[in-house]
Design a protein that fits this description.
The protein contains eleven helices and four strands; from the N terminus they run αααααββααααββαα. The protein is mainly alpha-helical. Helix 3 packs across helix 4 and helix 8 crosses helix 9.
């Protein structure tokens, strides 16, 4: 699949301008960098990825929805009102006992903002973009995820034409949980493939 596009997520020049502006405003005492960092972190790791987490939770809870997500992720996700620019063409890839999926964009940083929020800095960094393809197992270990040697790792290269959402395996011990409870176990990194869903005991879940 071609990467011939306008690199709508290639933010390096823009980021440089933003950084320069931030420096000037900080020196004038008009903004607090720490407060900006908190806001960015909130949208990057908390608010944004909640959309994708709800998609995963529904797929875990509803077999019919899971099948729809496999067949046509774009429409299945849009049915939950999660759509928009950079999320128009989606494919969901499901982790299994045999295969773990990992998403990367090797030429820029194509990313499904509508379901995962802001892309993390490391996703756009050249080391991740190159090493995720060459040594995915090693990259995952650096993220703290060590997979069994027999488990296959499949790497998916996002493009402007198609972006991916990893559906992690549902943790054991979550039978009967509501979709809201299940969503709490799904992190942004798990939907990129650099992590797995949280185990039930790692986070307090409402009764």
């Amino acid at each position: 699949m071609s990467h011939d596009h306008d690199h709508d997520n290639e933010l390096d020049p823009f980021a440089a301008r933003v950084r320069a502006l931030e420096t000037i405003l900080t020196e004038k005492g008009l903004i607090d960098p720490a407060a900006i960092d908190v806001i960015v972190d909130t949208y990057e790791t908390k608010i944004g990825p909640r959309n994708g987490a709800r998609v995963v939770a529904k797929a875990w809870s509803d077999p019919a929805y899971a099948e729809w997500l496999k067949r046509d992720a774009t429409k299945a996700i849009a049915s939950l009102s999660y759509s928009g620019r950079q999320g128009e063409h989606m494919q969901a890839v499901f982790n299994t006992d045999e295969t773990h999926n990992l998403v990367v964009c090797t030429l820029c940083s194509c990313y499904p903002w509508s379901v995962l929020g802001l892309p993390p800095v490391w996703y756009k960094a050249p080391p991740y973009r190159s090493r995720a393809v060459i040594d995915p197992r090693g990259v995952l270990e650096e993220f703290g995820l060590t997979l069994p040697a027999e488990k296959k790792i499949r790497v998916w290269d996002s493009t402007a034409e198609l972006r991916y959402l990893v559906v992690p395996m549902r943790p054991d011990g979550t039978e009967g949980w509501s979709e809201d409870q299940l969503a709490e176990l799904v992190s942004r990194d798990a939907m990129i493939g650099t992590a797995v869903a949280k185990e039930p005991g790692t986070k307090k879940v409402p009764a």
